[in-house]
Design brief:
The structure holds two protein chains of two kinds. By secondary structure, chain A is α/β, with parallel strands linked by helices. Chain A folds into two domains: about 5-85, Methyltransferase, Methionine Synthase (B12-binding Domains), Chain A, domain 1 (Orthogonal Bundle); about 95-215, Cobalamin-binding domain (Rossmann fold), CATH 3.40.50. Helix content of chain A is about 55%, strand content about 10%. Chain A has nine helices and five strands, in the order H-H-H-H-E-H-E-H-E-H-E-H-E-H. In chain A, strand 3 (about 150-155), helix 7 and strand 4 (about 180-185) form a beta-alpha-beta unit. Chain B is of the alpha/beta class. Chain B has a single domain (about 10-355), classed as TIM Barrel (Alpha-Beta Barrel). In chain B, about 50% of the residues lie in helices and about 10% in strands. Chain B is built from 16 helices and nine strands. Chain B has helices spanning about 10-20, 35-40, 45-50, 50-65, 75-80, 120-135, 150-155, 160-170, 170-195, 215-235, 250-255, 270-275, 290-295, 295-310, 330-345, 350-355, and strands at about 70-75, 85, 95-100, 145-150, 200, 240, 260-265, 280-285, 320. In chain B, strands 1-4-5-6-7-8-9 form a seven-stranded parallel sheet. Classes of the chains: A alpha/beta, B alpha/beta. The interface of A and B includes residues 69, 106 and 110 of A.
Chain lengths: ~220, ~350
């Protein structure tokens, strides 16, 4: 007997949640072949699985490695489903855009990558500038794509002042109210966030999503 | 010897080990990444010269009277010897920009002979720096080396994110790399131990912030244990530090057999004392960023006081330290404050009334 849509969605979600990054493409093909909407497959299948993984991370049942492999599975599934997504976007839909990167001088990017993954999972349109990013690039990219949010990451204390510089650049261009700045990374704290007048600090990737939604007013 | 102390660091450490009387509590702030600032040179100048590496540590000791000088072999040494490429910032700690191993199929192409002192100029330079420290100051203060543990050594060869994935997808290859790194580290540690240097083994990538406990037990613990045994066979001494939150692996870390355990400020000193205080001395854990970098003099006094309150009755002894390496962005006078607070609250016999009085932070 053919599997129901719910069963197939569950299967997609489970592939991500259970880190079956090699089986997820088959599950996604099975879902598409059965004739169901690709968008549901993404949101109620893959993204659901990633959200469950995020929940487990918050409960300290999953660790960084688990989230990485879960996200590999999610992206493998997305590759199959993406060509089947409807092309015409809902004209009224608000696209929440975010620019993210590791500040200049620092190359540690695992934390940034996790935040990017979880923001994409939450529905943000994410522009990832990578690591060791020149500070001006954050502001320029945010202006170019009309982003509401800049996320800055660093693991080193030597590069922390770069975060302050980005905030100051936005202030100088009078963009501070329009573009929110969120910061994170090993040495960063709420105290530092307050000190440099950034808009928010999150302790991990899950907290970052909650904060990002709050900052841009995402329902 | 510092003018406000009555014992040299060597005398203090010997008294600590024998359980004899000391003038004050031992203090080993990890003054590695800040040391060129204290010496008034750039990071690049320091790392280019064995003399300046040694001098930076000597300058720290002369100013602060801390109880351990630390030369930096660092976290990336094995990788760079094998061919990982580093950047070369003028005044900051270098980072890896290109790992030598991109595909686990190429493990056989790695030539670990390159990590030997004859073939690795960085390693040779740090050994020379240790010799200078011993020659100039060895009568007075011990010298340690901040050096990678096995898991972080692998991350200097193969990109960390892929390393983490591979613990699930290809554990056999990761065990092979760990085997090779552990063997290389044995030879590297030996050179330091022969020079009378204390091994400060740091394995930040094995942090509980990145790895789950079962991964620590499978991928780190056996190799760390082997290295500890090796250190002891050679008559050496090891202080074990893992960054981040190690609350769940603290027992396993101590099972590997270090002589001292250094904990990050993300871990509660009181908890660690309860768990492992009967087994070995504990070092920790004044927060290097929130307190030492961003805090006021009064914040630093408060933090030192809290640490001493929590640690002072640890059964095998307590050494006040920073929760992690102190970076160059920490104002150098803040370490003066830290040591001033240590001399105030950590003077023996401990003045309980002073320690428990909330209004003594100045």
């Amino acid at each position: 007997m053919a599997k129901s849509k719910e069963e197939l969605l569950q299967q997609l979600s489970d592939c991500v949640f259970e880190m079956e990054d090699e089986n997820v493409a088959d599950a996604a093909n099975e879902y598409i072949d059965a004739g169901y909407e690709a968008l549901d497959g993404v949101l109620k299948g893959l993204v659901d699985g990633m959200n469950r993984a995020g929940q487990m991370y918050e409960e300290e049942e999953y660790f960084v490695t688990d989230l990485l492999v879960c996200s590999d599975a999610m992206y493998n599934g997305l590759e199959v489903l993406k060509p089947h997504l409807p092309l015409d976007q809902d004209a009224d839909a608000v696209n929440y855009k975010c620019v993210i990167g590791v500040v200049e001088g620092d190359t540690h990017d695992i934390g940034k990558n996790l935040v990017r993954i979880m923001l994409e999972t939450a529905g943000f349109e994410v522009y990832d500038l990578g690591r060791d990013v020149p500070l001006i690039s954050f502001v320029e990219k945010a202006k170019e794509v009309d982003a509401q949010l800049i996320c800055l990451s660093t693991l080193m204390t030597t590069t922390m002042p770069g975060m302050k510089e980005v905030v100051e650049m936005l202030e100088k261009e009078e963009l501070k109210d329009k573009v929110k700045v969120m910061i994170g990374g090993g040495p960063i704290s709420q105290a530092y966030c307050d000190q440099i007048n950034a808009d928010g600090y999150a302790v991990n990737a899950i907290g970052a999503v909650t904060l990002a939604k709050e900052l841009v007013g995402m329902a | 010897m510092h003018e406000q102390d009555q014992m040299t660091p060597n005398e203090r450490l010997q008294a600590f080990i024998k359980g004899e009387k000391m003038d004050r509590i031992l203090a080993m702030p990890i003054l590695v990444s800040i040391s060129h600032r204290v010496a008034g040179i750039t990071h690049r100048e320091k790392r280019a010269s064995a003399e300046l590496q040694a001098q930076s540590q000597i300058d720290c000791y002369k100013r602060y009277g801390n109880d351990l000088m630390i030369i930096e072999y660092g976290l990336h040494g094995v990788g760079t010897a094998l061919g990982s490429e580093m950047n070369d910032p003028e005044d900051s700690l270098p980072a890896i920009v290109n790992h030598v191993l991109q595909d686990l199929k190429d493990i056989d192409q790695l030539d670990f002979d390159k990590t030997k002192k004859e073939n690795d100029p960085w390693f040779a330079k740090t050994l020379e720096a240790c010799e200078i420290c011993q020659e100039k100051m060895g009568q007075e203060i011990p010298t340690g080396v901040l050096i990678t543990g096995p898991f972080t050594a692998v991350s200097s060869i193969y990109p960390t994110e892929n390393l983490l994935r591979a613990t699930r997808k290809d554990p056999a290859s990761i065990h092979r790399l760990l085997r090779l790194c552990t063997d290389a580290l044995k030879d590297i540690y030996k050179e330091y131990i022969q020079r009378g240097i204390i091994i400060v083994m740091c394995d930040p990538i094995a942090s509980g912030t990145l790895l789950r406990k079962s991964q620590y037990i499978e991928f780190v613990k056996p190799y760390a244990t082997e290295l500890m045994n090796h250190i002891h066979e050679l008559g050496g001494m090891c202080c074990y530090h893992i960054c981040g939150n190690t609350t769940k692996i603290v027992m396993d870390m101590v099972d590997t057999g270090p002589d001292m355990l250094s904990i990050d400020n993300l871990v509660d000193l009181e908890y660690v004392k309860g768990q492992v205080g009967k087994r070995l001395p504990i070092l920790g854990n004044v927060p290097p960023v929130d307190v030492l970098m961003l805090g006021s003099r009064s914040d630093i006094f408060e933090s030192v006081k809290t640490c001493i309150l929590k640690g002072k009755d640890s059964p095998k002894g307590y050494i006040i330290a920073s929760g992690c390496d102190i970076t160059q962005n920490v104002p150098v006078e803040n370490i003066d404050y830290m040591m001033e607070a240590v001399r105030k609250y950590g003077r023996y016999p401990i003045d309980e009334a002073l320690l428990n009085d909330p209004a003594t932070n100045n």
